[in-house]
Amino acid sequence: MSAQHPARTATARHYLMCRPTYFTVDYRINPWMDPAKPVDTALAVLQWERLRELHRSLGHTVELIEPIPGLPDMVYAANGATVHDGRVLGARFRHPERAAEGPAYEQWFRDAGHAVVKTAEYVNEGEGDYLVVGDRVLAGTGFRTEPAAHAEAQELFGVPVTGLTLVDPRFYHLDTALAVLGDEIMYFPGAFSPASRRVLRELYPDAIVADEAEALVFGLNAVCDGRHVILPQAATTLAAKLAARGYEPIGIDLSELLKGGGSVKCCTLEIRHASAGGPR
Ligand code: ARG
C-alpha cells in the first residue's frame, strides 16, 4: 500500500446475482457479441460460481434470482434494476431480446419485500447505466438508457443524477467505462463525449484514469466494497494503479461472460438498503 493513501475500509455489501444456466450468445446487441463464436456454458457457470464465492469470502451477502430459459443475458444482473437508499427503480430494456428481464427482476424485488419498487417509464438498463457514487448517481446515455430516464431516477432517488454521454459502441453501458470506488471513481475518458469528460474532470479531479487497453479487457467493469476491487485478471496495469492508491485489487477470469459483453460488475447488482429512518 502506498504511504500517501489511507488504508481503505471495506463495508459489507448485499448483492443480487443470476446463475448463467441458460447463458449463450445467439443474438448481437453489442459489438462484443458474436453468435458464430462458441460459448462454453458450463465454464461460464464455473467462472460465475468463483465470482459468487469471492463476494462471499469477502463477507458480502449474495442473493440469487432464478434464471429463465430464453433470457441468456439475465446473468448480467446489474442491468436488472437500480437500488438506492432502499428504493428500487425497475429496468426497461432497449432491445426486445432482453425486454422480459425487466419485469422478472422487478418481481424479485417485490417478492423480497421491498416497499418502494417503481416500474420505469423510460428506457434504462439498471446499474449498467446508473452508478451510485456516494450521494450522487452518474447516469450514462448514448446507447441504451435514454436521457429522459435520468430525470425519472432523480425524482425517485432524490439525489443529483448527472448525465454522461457515451460515444464509443464498445463501451455501450456506463459500467464498461467507469467504476465506483467508494466516493472516488476510475474511468476511461475516451468512452465519453468531450463535454462529459469535462464534467468528470470537474467532479472527480483525483479519479484513476484508465487507458484504452485497460478498458478493452473490461478492467473498468469492477466491483469495489471500499477496499477490495474485483476486476478482470487481464487488467494488470489497472490493478497496479489501484494498489498504488491503497486498494486491494483481486483479479478474476470471466472469459466466457466477456463473450456477451460483460464482466464482474455486470454480474453483480448491489442492493443498497434504506438509511436509518427508512426511505424518505
Ligand atoms: N449482452 C448484454 C447486453 O448487451 C451484456 C450486458 C452487460 N452488462 C453490463 N452491465 N454492462 O445487454
What is the H level of CATH, i.e. the homologous superfamily?
A: L-arginine/glycine Amidinotransferase, Chain A
Q: In total, how many beta strands?
A: 15
Name of the CATH class: Alpha Beta
Percent of residues in helices: 10-25%
Classify the fold: give the CATH topology: L-arginine/glycine Amidinotransferase, Chain A
The succession of helices and strands, N to C, reads: EHEEEHEEEHEEEHEHEEHEHE
Count structural domains. 1
Instruction: Calculate Rg over CA atoms.
Output: 17 Å
Amino-to-carboxy terminus distance: 39 Å
Shape assignment: globular
Count of DSSP H/I helices:
7
Residue fraction in strands: 15-25%
**Unreliable parts:** none
Structural class: alpha/beta
Bound molecules: arginine
Task: Provide keyphrases for this structure.
280 residues, alpha/beta, L-arginine/glycine Amidinotransferase, Chain A, 3-stranded mixed sheet, 7 helices, binds arginine, hydrolase
